[in-house]
Every structure is written in C-alpha cells, then in structure tokens.
Amino acid sequence: MKALIETMVAPLVDYPDDVVVSVNETDDRITYHLAVNQEDVGKVIGKNGRIAKAVRTVVYAAGSDTKKRIYLDIM
C-alpha cells in the first residue's frame, strides 16, 4: 500500500524525493501518514481537496480486503 501511495503522489509533486509514507497500525485501524515537501502540499490536496479525495478513494478501495479501517493522513 505504501508503494501505491508513493506511485500516485510522486508524479504530482515538484520534489518526489521528499515523499514519505509511514504506517501506524492498531487493532482496528491502519493509518498511512503521507508527508511531502511544504511547497507541494497544495498540489497533493488540490483545488477544493479533489486530488486528496481521489487518492483516498483509491487507497480505501485497494485496502477493502482487510478487516481494518484504513485512513490516509496528508501532512
């Protein structure tokens, strides 16, 4: 899942080397923390949050086979 997030976000940003995805897993949820360069945050979120919503939709659909709830946090 980390590779999927990095693959989707890296072409969107100016500094693809700064894209970092970390994972925090508990008993009932998996949280992916996406960190990008400060200048690229707007590009990842997009106008009215459209890009962030699309990325989250793909991540949630890809993780639907797990019993745990999946969250994507963009920093």
UniProtKB/TrEMBL annotation:
Entry's localization field: Cytoplasm
GO molecular function list: RNA binding
Family statement drawn from the similarity comment of this UniProt entry: Belongs to the KhpA RNA-binding protein family.
Annotated Gene Ontology cellular component terms: cytoplasm
Acyltransferase as UniProt keyword: no
Keywords: Cell shape, Cell wall biogenesis/degradation, Chaperone, Cytoplasm, RNA-binding
PANTHER family: RNA-BINDING PROTEIN KHPA, UPF0109 PROTEIN SCO5592
Protein name per its UniProtKB record: RNA-binding protein KhpA
InterPro entries xrefs: KH_dom-like_a/b (IPR015946), KH_sf_prok-type (IPR009019), KhpA (IPR020627)
Gene: khpA
Source organism of the structure: Sediminibacillus albus
Subunit details: Forms a complex with KhpB.
A GO biological process held by the record: peptidoglycan biosynthetic process
Keyword Chaperone applies: yes
Main function: A probable RNA chaperone. Forms a complex with KhpB which binds to cellular RNA and controls its expression. Plays a role in peptidoglycan (PG) homeostasis and cell length regulation.
Upper lineage: Bacteria, Bacillati, Bacillota, Bacilli, Bacillales
